[in-house]
Amino acid sequence: MIRTIPERLQDLAQAAPEREILRYRFLDGSEIVLTRAELLKLAESTAEQLEEAGASDGDIVAIVQRHPLALIGTFFGITGIAAVPSILPFATEKLHPDRYQASMAALFDLVQPALLVTEPELYDEVAALLPSPAPEKPTLLSIDVGAQCAAPLQPISDPDAIALLQHSSGTTGLQKGVALSHRAIFDQLDAYSQA
Q: Model-level pTM?
């Protein structure tokens, strides 16, 4: 059985490349629909861009993106190079700017990502959140979701490797991070599928 996220995606794309894997509906009714093959290509393209920016095995890569296609591609691309994705919130009108800035600064200080992926429209806003001066500032990167890729995802053979870093909402204080392995994620999915 496939026990890592990139291996599972590759297996699904090989088994039925044109089968729909994701459908995202916007509030206005428009949709993004991806086949398994399209998601794999997006992940491969993103992985290549991440490697070119210096991300590698075990690095924490923070994600602050609003667009679902970019976010999905970034997440799967990060797992495809054995780095660790950590999805962080972008500022909204629901979050007080001072609290958001303090929370994000604390998260960046705690997590110390090697790379921070965002969108061009959020670049200045996200750059302002980084601690300054900081000797180990993460590299900021915007992903080109339309880029073509030359290389397939590299298989990750260790199901106990960290697959992602998930954070709590922070309603009772600083957001807490939980590292989940590929095995833990698939075990949870298996348990849910039997319920």
A: 0.89
Question: DSSP secondary structure string, the chain?
Answer: ---SHHHHHHHHHHH-TTSEEEEEE-TTS-EEEEEHHHHHHHHHHHHHHHHHTT--TT-EEEEE---HHHHHHHHHHHHTTT-EEEE-PPP-TTS-HHHHHHHHHHHHHHH--SEEEE-GGGHHHHHTTS-SS-TTPPEEEE--TT---SSPPPP---TTSEEEEEE---TTSSPPEEEEEHHHHHHHHHHHHH-
Containing structural domain, residue 136 = 5-194
Per-residue confidence (pLDDT) for residue 90, from 0 to 100: 84
- The alpha-carbon radius of gyration of the chain (Å, integer) is 17
User: pLDDT tens digits for 39-96?
Assistant: 999 999 999 999 999 999 999 999 999 999 999 999 999 999 999 999 988 888 888 8
CATH number at residue 14: 3.40.50.12780
Closest-CA residue to 140 (of 150, 130, 154, 152): 130
Domain count, the chain: 1
